[in-house]
Amino acid sequence: MKLVVVGAAGRMGGALIRAILSSPDLTLSAAIERDGSPALGKDAGTLSGLPETGVKVTSDPLTAFNEAEGVLDFTSPAATLEFAALAAQARIVHVIGTTGFSGEEIKKLDAAARHAVLVRSGNMSLGVNLLAALVRKAAAALPDFDVEILEMHHRHKVDAPSGTALLLGEAAAEGRHVPLAAKAVKTRDGHTGAREDGAIGFATLRGGSVVGDHTVILAGPGERIELSHKAEDRAIFANGAVRAALWGKGRMPGHYSMADVLGIADL
User: Fold this and answer.
1) Is there a contact between 22 and 3 (Cβ–Cβ < 8 Å)?
2) Which residues pair with 27 in a beta bridge?
3) What percent of the chain is modeled with pLDDT above 90?
4) Which parts of the chain are beta strand (E)?
5) pLDDT tens digits, one per residue of 91-137
6) I need a labelling partner for 30 at 20 to 30 A (CA). Which of 68, 92, 205, 253 fits?
7) Per-residue pLDDT tens for 211-243?
8) Are 84 and 101 in contact (CB under 8 A)?
């Protein structure tokens, strides 16, 4: 499968390139960076710490998408929307690990998914997506337990709560058949009063070089359950994205999740 990596010079871009080059089932078709990037013209392999591949970093996604079968995208919401339109036009698989989308931006992705296979997740890790399924089941089984989600990431992360924390919050809300938007509590400061019944709370920590730690706490009278995942290497996200791309090849257009990829959407 011929894949394009966008945001090739970033930390995740390098991890995606390494994942593609290590797989016998994949070919790095192109590596894309924004206009003006110092990475333009450099070899994608050496840029990611590997031997030369012969694939030079360019700023021309249109040509790259038309010559590929899929694109791996961990960029920004604005950039991802542009790439989604191009992927839909080219009818290729678009794997999205970008987070921080607004409701209106999600609608635009839904529109693109009418023409292309779009696999999107707040976290591409196989373990996190299994965790989300377990959270959904636990929240349903323990409807009176309070749900709190604690996450920590490196000091450079720009969005909060993290896409993974929101993914886990959505799982808890789905388990209880309520909209997350109506139950989420993302900030607490000052005299907040007692905790509202049914709230799904979020706590955000930032610092150091933490790749990603997430814990979902279900707190009941006299007992507490904690379901946790700790990411130790960005390679887990890249490997999940590669698996999603291979899964999406040849499928009907649609807006899919990693739960679909893993076959645990109904767990």
Assistant:
1) no
2) 2
3) 94
4) 2-6, 27-32, 57-58, 70-73, 93-96, 117-120, 146-153, 184-185, 200-206, 212-220, 223-231, 254-256
5) 999 999 998 899 999 999 999 999 999 999 988 999 999 999 999 99
6) 253
7) 999 999 999 999 999 999 999 988 999 999 999
8) no
- At residue 30, what is the residue type? A
How many Å apart are CA 177 and CA 127, to the nearest integer?
24
Q: Which residues of 44-75 are buried (b: 16+ CB within 10 A; e: fewer)?
A: bbebbeeeebebebbeebeebbeebbbbbbbb
Those residues whose C-beta lies under 8 Å from the C-beta of residue 17, and which sit 6 or more positions away, are 5, 8, 28, 31, 44, 45, 47, 48, 50
Residue position matching structure tokens 């994942």: 19
pTM comes to 0.83
Task: State how far the Cα of 209 lies from the Cα of 115, in Å rounded to an integer.
Answer: 38
Strand ranges of the sheet holding 254-256, from the earlier edge strand across to the other edge? 57-58, 27-32, 2-6, 70-73, 93-96, 117-120, 254-256
**Known catalytic residue at 157:** yes
- Predicted confidence at residue 60, as pLDDT, reads 96
* Identified catalytic residue from 42, 94, 153, 214: 153
- CA neighbours closer than 13 Å in the CB half-sphere of residue 228: 11
In whole angstroms, give the CA distance from residue 262 to residue 259.
5
Q: Would you say how long the chain is, in residues?
A: 267
Task: Give CA angle at 78 (96, 167), nearest 5°.
Answer: 45
HSE-CB for 195 with a 13 A CA cutoff: 16
Rounded CA gap, 31 and 63, in Å?
A: 11
Residue 115 annotated among the catalytic residues of the structure: no
Enter the tokens of residue 66: 């038309």
Q: Which of 2, 157, 186, 249 is catalytic?
A: 157
CA distance 241 to 126: 10
